[in-house]
Amino acid sequence: MKLKYDTYNFLTIQNVFLKRISNMQETEEVIFNTVKDNGGFRLTHCSMEDHPDIILSIMGEDLPPNYVGPPDLLGKFNVEIPSEAGEIGVTIWFSTQEDNDKMSMIIQKFIEWRFPKLVITKDTTMGVYEPGKLTVKAG
Fold first, then answer.
1. In total, how many domains does the chain have?
2. Is residue 137 part of a domain?
3. Closest CA to 132 of 11, 43, 2
4. Is 102 within the bounds of a domain?
5. Spatial separation of the C-alpha atoms in residues 83 and 102, rounded to whole Å
6. CB neighbours of 132 closer than 8 A, spacing ≥ 6?
7. Alpha helices in the chain (DSSP H)
């Protein structure tokens, strides 16, 4: 199944990295709750400290292409994150009911929390090399 390229999704992830480079100030605390689903796949539920019961985003790692995501989170895109062991595929489902800045902040904090050794510099590149997938390449 091919994923449809969605400009909204691309702009959201692009904002994550641009804001990280510019040292955006955040004031709200994001809560990460990582679980393994029935298939053994790692899923991280992201919510805000003031409403921990409301999941605003779920990040799944190295999921198969036919993986069925949560029905309540309508936004979706994939990103490949460089790591020492190779690229890690992260599928990100997110709420389309929240504003872009809040969702960008949540995604940014997840990436900083989950991939603390990822270094983003002015030489880091990202691009859409296949529909629905953003690839980050360390500079």
1. 1
2. no
3. 2
4. yes
5. 26
6. 2, 3, 4, 5, 6, 9, 77, 78
7. 7-21, 100-114
Q: Is residue 74 part of a domain?
A: yes
Q: Tell me if 117 is assigned to some domain.
A: yes
User: What is the side-by-side order of every strand in the sheet holding 42-48?
Assistant: 30-36, 42-48, 51-61, 86-94, 75-83, 133-137, 125-130
pLDDT tens-digit readout, 43-101: 999 999 999 999 999 999 999 989 999 999 998 888 888 877 778 899 999 999 988 88
Q: Which conformational region is residue 86 in: left (phi greater than 0), alpha (psi within -120 to 50 degrees), or beta? A: left
Write the single-letter amino acid at 112: E
In angstroms, rounded to a whole number, what is the distance separating the alpha carbons of residues 80 and 101?
A: 21
Q: 19 - beta bridge partners?
A: none
Q: Which residue range(s) make up the domain with 32?
A: 7-125
CA distances from 97 to 21, 37, 68, 100, 114 (A): 26, 25, 20, 9, 24
